[in-house]
């Protein structure tokens, strides 16, 4: 190794042994890939379950995030290794498709890789292992279908949905008021759901947060909240039966598109210009009044003169409202977004039963609530919390709960949680392994052992003896032929997850197994990593 300098005087190191370096190929590459995948899974393993630990993530800018959501942890980690990036994408796939189970799917993939490493050391070809895993995943998915249960729910009977959302929230920071948040999430989803088509548009649910208050103050608003206040402090703070003009045109005189200059050399000319401007404002306000509007919501700002005129003509107004919020207001109130004052008609006005401005604590923070809208299929979940990190984590937790409720409306099949489904699948896969005559049966058995890693991690994170607890629950399931026995993480006193009301969605659990198997198969088939410097 030698130190040299370039023409600008910057030092660089010359590595003389560079030509002797070799890149990993074959079995060595596969083992290195498996180690990278296991390292990522090991990070998330301690975050699994209701007693899982949280992680602090610090961004390069110094922003701090505290979370135990698998997708968020991996998304914010600065991962360079190509195989580790596959694990990050695996977690994100689960998040996009299901919304929950992002930690479990990575733990599952890590366990499959660990078992694959042992099989590779015994001389089994990676393609054989991949085929065995594929067979085992099919057995596990079919078995999940077999042990699943359907439940009925409706607008009047939301308890099953609430219980499932509570299971999701029990592993989050917000678990102390999981019942309250689960009810809010379920009511929000049912408000925007089309139960006949079994479809839910989560874009209609807006999740807002403001620092202050406590978590229990989180509320569901059947309408829209806008982080704005009335443009003039003397405008009314509450408007009932509001008729809302939603405008994307500014309250100001038109400006020429070319460069211009106005010379004013007499008082009369200035007076004429002022009167002309005032007439513009008068006409704009009058057009709004003529169509019967009692509130104006504008995407653009307006100057003090327009503001003063609006206040004097008893026309409350809100300015600088964003485009996304404007669309939600239009959907909720049944109004139309108007681009020009000339196009304003009574039919294009939105309608809301109540529009009110609300202040928070001793701060000057104010928000506008638009409630009892003509179309109640747009709702807002308004979160309160002690600090920004708490609000952000609550938003992530509520997103998971909303996704679970949506999945149950699409497919109302559930399996029981607490690792009971994994243990039951492990027993079924182990029993099926003997039917395969080839080398694949070793991989099928390894898959069964990998399934045990999820309940084992749950027991470990809950402070229980993992091997002892898993053995006891497994023997109980086999003895009583009951797939509902799982790990008693919360120390309730019973292992029966049906009694504890711990549910998970069937499609979420099936997706976990299928996604983890697909990624592990992909990793096993990689026997060489070629970087740009290699060619």
From TrEMBL:
GO terms for cellular component: chaperonin-containing T-complex. Its main location: cytoplasm. It is found in: Cytoplasm, Cytoskeleton, Microtubule organizing center, Centrosome. GO terms for molecular function: ATP binding; ATP hydrolysis activity; ATP-dependent protein folding chaperone; unfolded protein binding. Keywords: Acetylation, ATP-binding, Chaperone, Cytoplasm, Cytoskeleton, Hydrolase, Isopeptide bond, Nucleotide-binding, Phosphoprotein, Ubl conjugation. PANTHER family: CHAPERONIN. Component of the chaperonin-containing T-complex (TRiC), a molecular chaperone complex that assists the folding of actin, tubulin and other proteins upon ATP hydrolysis. The TRiC complex mediates the folding of WRAP53/TCAB1, thereby regulating telomere maintenance. As part of the TRiC complex may play a role in the assembly of BBSome, a complex involved in ciliogenesis regulating transports vesicles to the cilia. Molecular chaperone; assists the folding of proteins upon ATP hydrolysis. Known to play a role, in vitro, in the folding of actin and tubulin. This is T-complex protein 1 subunit epsilon. It comes from Gossypium tomentosum. The lineage of its organism: Eukaryota, Viridiplantae, Streptophyta, Embryophyta, Tracheophyta.
